[in-house]
Amino acid sequence: MKIVESHYKNLLEAVSFLKLGHLIGVPTETVYGLAADATNDLAVARIYETKGRPQFNPLIVHVSSIEQAKEYAEFNVLAEKFAEHFWPGPLTLVLPLRMDSRISKLVTAGLNTVAIRFPAHRVIIELIKEAGFPLAVPSANPSGFLSPTKAEHVLAGFNGFQEPKLILEGGSCMIGLESTILDLTSDQVVLLRAGGIALEDLLKISDVSRVDSNNEIKAPGMLNQHYSPRKPLRINASEPQNGEAFLAFGPIDFKGEAKVLNLSPSGNLTEAAANLFSMLHELDQSDSQGIAVMP
Ligand code: TXA
Ligand code: MG
């Protein structure tokens, strides 16, 4: 496994691995993903195996155009509106699966719905176009742990594994948080996972309700443990205690010994989002015993 530059020759090599049912590490605007041919059962099974992911947790199908999305999902008027407004970009739509779609049943975990998105990153768009098939792409982290926002995070997460065969370099992810997931399969639009698109922007298109927490698990944010560093993490901390590293936000006046990183000294939430996972990775690898995070 190695990180390679994303020029045409390496993209073609990545495509030949995908065609053989192997996995590729790939950048998107949100986080790095672990890509497989979404129509190949064996390839998709490798995703679950490599990530140690529970089989009941379905995957997002990634496409390189709205027309391609319509080959796999049923679009209604509202879905069209969301797609036109936010694609390519960090929005995933859960829609009825088309009966004639060739998507592997492992991707949807047997559901009759499919999560689909058109990402905004040159490298994954070219990879999908060159491959000619849609890609199933979860975040490229071992299940339950911090999401990767740099190619090196992917390498560190799967060091010594058989897969992915290659990691395509794409720089630091611009958004740094997963895509926002909206369920459009009922008469209400339901937010299944908060992510790269702000709620205020979604509300320009339609009303959005929060998911009912008594419902069955529909998205990963509802599992008790997710996006977790290896070290204990303490939230709403005003300052670090003995042995803790400190993840700050906004102007601070801390003069202790602890290692300190600041998500955004000016208090900018977009900047903080882009830094969140990479700073957590860095503090997780520092020699602190735990991580304290400011409100
Ligand atoms: O930003 C992203 O979306 C990243 C990048 C790589 O594109 N991908 C990503 O995938 O976050 P993943 O597998 O880490 O999270 C996808 C989540 C699943 O955990 C699942 O709960 C939800 O999407 N999902 C997938 N299919 C679904 C469906 N049919 N109904 C409801 N939720 C679904
Ligand atoms: Mg994930």
By DSSP (H or I, 4+ residues per run), the number of helices equals 8
| Global structural class | alpha/beta
* Ligand species: threonylcarbamoyladenylate, magnesium ion
Rg, rounded, reads 19 Å
The succession of helices and strands, N to C, reads: EHEEHEHHEEHEHEEEHEEEEHE
Distance between the termini: 38 Å
Oligomeric assembly: single chain
- Uncertain runs are none
- Main sheet: strands, sense, barrel: 11 strands, mixed
Number of strands: 15
Helix content: 25-40%
Which strand order spans the largest sheet, edge to edge or round the barrel? 1-8-2-3-7-4-6-5-9-10-11
What are the key terms here?
binds threonylcarbamoyladenylate; 11-stranded mixed sheet; 295 residues; binds magnesium ion; 26% helix; alpha/beta; single chain; 4-stranded parallel sheet
Write the SSE topology:
Blueprint: E1 2-4, H1 8-19, E2 24-26, E3 33-37, H2 41-51, E4 60-62, H3 66-69, H4 77-86, E5 91-96, E6 113-117, H5 122-131, E7 135-136, H6 151-157, E8 166-168, E9 180-183, E10 190-193, H7 199-203, E11 209-210, E12 233-234, E13 244-248, E14 260-262, H8 269-285, E15 290-293
Parallel strand pairs: 1-8, 2-8, 4-6, 5-9, 10-11, 12-15, 13-14, 13-15
Antiparallel strand pairs: 2-3, 3-7, 4-7, 5-6, 9-10
Helix pairs in contact: 1-5
Bound molecules: threonylcarbamoyladenylate and magnesium ion (MG).
The site of magnesium ion (MG) has 4 residues, from loops.
